[in-house]
């Protein structure tokens, strides 16, 4: 079959290269400055020569960089694009975060799915002296956080299984059961899972550009439990915001 004068297998080869590049960038983003070529080769499961060519290409276009010790980081060109994207998302969601913060009196976090983790890009801090605060630019895992589980609820089952593969069977099944509930109730919970003494609720959906974006409300567990219904109601209200483009599965 021919598409625009090019064989379909050439198009498929191009898609495969893009998928490999995306997978490589995901691995680099997950462990910035900690991977060398041999580590990337192992994680991707590709031939070392293929991984080397892929890395050289990413470096040439500014999507990756390698320091003097051979450690790989994301490139300045890609970081510039990511920062511009994050700034756009932050601006679009700011008023929604403010409404949630006003309704709950708690810290409200905004995060976006990047490289297999949730990247925190904005926050409104609670006025309480005892409050939960996460650093902007911090990355949180998916299976033990409210925003992460809310994001996982947007994945199809095969992708969820891939994320949960590192967990033991009982824990993975517990998280799967939670995700099934999130798909119905729209709100995910972290009950002292990620950080002892801190609980959270979160929602997620699609935003401009197809980004998976989450809003979460963390608080000291005792206060969270006392005001859980108010927090959940505020998050349900946030789901009605026009800033979301879709909240259906990927």
From TrEMBL:
Residues 77-250 form the IclR-ED domain. Residues 15-76 form the HTH iclR-type domain. Keywords: DNA-binding, Transcription, Transcription regulation. It comes from the Bacteria. It holds the Pfam family HTH_IclR. This is IclR family transcriptional regulator.
């Amino acid at each position: 079959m021919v598409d625009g004068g090019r064989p379909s297998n050439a198009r498929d080869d191009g898609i495969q290269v893009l998928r490999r590049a995306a997978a490589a960038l995901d691995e680099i983003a997950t462990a910035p400055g900690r991977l060398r070529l041999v580590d990337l080769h192992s994680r991707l499961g590709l031939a070392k020569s293929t991984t080397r060519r892929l890395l050289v290409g990413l470096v040439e276009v500014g999507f990756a960089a390698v320091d003097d010790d051979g450690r790989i980081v994301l490139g300045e060109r890609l970081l510039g694009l990511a920062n511009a994207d994050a700034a756009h998302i932050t601006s679009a969601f700011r008023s929604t975060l403010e409404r949630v913060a006003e309704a709950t009196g708690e810290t409200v976090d905004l995060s976006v799915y990047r490289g297999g983790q949730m990247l925190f890009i904005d926050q409104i801090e609670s006025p309480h002296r005892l409050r939960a605060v996460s650093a902007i630019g911090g990355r949180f895992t998916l299976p033990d956080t409210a925003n992460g589980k809310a994001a996982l609820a947007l994945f199809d089952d095969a992708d969820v299984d891939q994320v949960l593969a590192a967990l033991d069977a009982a824990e993975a099944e517990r998280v799967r059961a939670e995700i099934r509930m999130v798909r119905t109730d729209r709100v995910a919970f972290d009950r002292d899972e990620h950080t002892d003494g801190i609980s959270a609720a979160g929602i997620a959906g699609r935003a401009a550009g197809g980004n998976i974006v989450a809003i979460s409300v963390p608080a000291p567990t005792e206060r969270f439990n006392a005001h859980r219904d108010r927090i959940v109601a505020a998050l349900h209200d946030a789901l009605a915001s026009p800033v979301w483009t879709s909240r259906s599965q990927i």
